[in-house]
Amino acid sequence: MAKKLLIVDDKLELRQLLRSYLTEEGFEVFTAGNGQEALFAARDHKPDLIILDLMMPEMSGFEFLRTYRREAETPVIVLTARLEENDKVVGLELGADDYVTKPFSMRELTARIRAVLRRMDKAVAAPETLRRGQIELDRTSRMVLVNGKPVDLTPSEFEILAAFMETPGKVFSRLELLERIQGDAYEGYERTIDVHIRNLRLKIEPDPANPHYIETVYGAGYRFAVRD
């Protein structure tokens, strides 16, 4: 069965171009012109992945993410203009999994889409429960418990935490973690990992300012502390 994509952008020409190209690539594609339309479309079609422009009229991509993340964990790739560095960070903080900078090549976007979908399929196909300290991660239900209480993670945050909990004590570089969540590591994008780590700490650490689980290894990356 073809994977379903939702393209959200206020530019009709771009929506039509992406729909035509990605349909040829074997996807089932739906479109929306703003965040409000996207909410209705996402609820109706239940896409496997959303491609989201951030700057749109009526309801922006930021507002869409704030609302939709309360309802579903569908992976989201945001589209940003080249100079909008802060938009990339805010988008990731709101729960986006990746971003592609405009102008972009269709091949790169398609590769990103397939990498995210492969990672999601792989996670579903590998049922397993991991327990480290007061954290429990269940691959089957994609649920994370901290001190017995459920914590909502984005797909990328879930995969990063799973990588850490599989091999506590191992130091992961930013590029290694990026490859884990995307399937391919693109230089220049590895700093997005810092945003995901910050979000993870806010959700799982007793004191995010003094991490108990996710440690920074300066000059190298991050590791999950080995704790009983």
From TrEMBL:
<feature type="domain" description="Response regulatory">
    <location>
        <begin position="4"/>
        <end position="117"/>
    </location>
</feature>
<dbReference type="InterPro" id="IPR036388">
    <property type="entry name" value="WH-like_DNA-bd_sf"/>
</dbReference>
<dbReference type="InterPro" id="IPR039420">
    <property type="entry name" value="WalR-like"/>
</dbReference>
<keyword id="KW-0805">Transcription regulation</keyword>
<feature type="DNA-binding region" description="OmpR/PhoB-type">
    <location>
        <begin position="127"/>
        <end position="226"/>
    </location>
</feature>
<dbReference type="GO" id="GO:0032993">
    <property type="term" value="C:protein-DNA complex"/>
</dbReference>
<keyword id="KW-0804">Transcription</keyword>
<dbReference type="GO" id="GO:0005829">
    <property type="term" value="C:cytosol"/>
</dbReference>
<dbReference type="GO" id="GO:0000976">
    <property type="term" value="F:transcription cis-regulatory region binding"/>
</dbReference>
<protein>
    <submittedName>
        <fullName>Response regulator transcription factor</fullName>
    </submittedName>
</protein>
<dbReference type="Pfam" id="PF00072">
    <property type="entry name" value="Response_reg"/>
</dbReference>
<keyword id="KW-0902">Two-component regulatory system</keyword>
<dbReference type="InterPro" id="IPR001789">
    <property type="entry name" value="Sig_transdc_resp-reg_receiver"/>
</dbReference>
<dbReference type="GO" id="GO:0000156">
    <property type="term" value="F:phosphorelay response regulator activity"/>
</dbReference>
<dbReference type="GO" id="GO:0006355">
    <property type="term" value="P:regulation of DNA-templated transcription"/>
</dbReference>
<keyword id="KW-0238">DNA-binding</keyword>
<dbReference type="InterPro" id="IPR001867">
    <property type="entry name" value="OmpR/PhoB-type_DNA-bd"/>
</dbReference>
<feature type="modified residue" description="4-aspartylphosphate">
    <location>
        <position position="53"/>
    </location>
</feature>
<feature type="domain" description="OmpR/PhoB-type">
    <location>
        <begin position="127"/>
        <end position="226"/>
    </location>
</feature>
<dbReference type="Pfam" id="PF00486">
    <property type="entry name" value="Trans_reg_C"/>
</dbReference>
<dbReference type="InterPro" id="IPR011006">
    <property type="entry name" value="CheY-like_superfamily"/>
</dbReference>
<keyword id="KW-0597">Phosphoprotein</keyword>
